[in-house]
Specification:
Length: 130
């Protein structure tokens, strides 16, 4: 008897660097505001598991600090703004940019965040495909 070797439809992607993120971060096209402590900043990029923001001042926080943030996410229409509240841990600081991992978020806010990311990805694909 002979068996045919099964073919695999797997795709392997090799990264050039040692960075192994578990989520792809996107940069919002429109300015998105994030409130943290008594400050507000501009969101640099976001994923379902992390975010980065640029603060006006340096040395606001330290690495590994836990911080409750509120991200003002634009909804389906430009007038609708939905605040997404979560707790983040600062994992990397570069001057005034803070790179964070989301460590606590409820289902409602996770759904808001996922919907925002999906809509933003669709919007960016449409803009680049023209």
């Amino acid at each position: 008897m002979f068996w045919k070797k099964k073919t695999s439809n797997e795709i392997t992607i090799e990264l050039a660097s040692d960075e192994r993120r578990h989520g792809v971060r996107i940069k919002p096209l429109d300015e998105t505001i994030i409130h943290h402590g008594n400050y507000q900043s501009r969101l640099m990029d976001i994923s379902s598991i992390g975010l980065s923001f640029i603060a006006d001042k340096s040395n606001l926080y330290k690495k590994k600090d836990g911080l409750e943030v509120s991200i003002m996410l634009p909804g389906a229409s430009t007038e609708a703004i939905s605040p997404c509240v979560c707790t983040v841990k600062i994992i990397y600081i570069a001057k005034t940019s803070y790179h964070c991992q989301i460590i606590q978020i409820d289902r409602k806010n996770q759904s808001l965040l996922d919907l925002f990311i999906l809509n933003e990805q669709k919007r960016q694909i449409q803009l680049h495909s023209r």
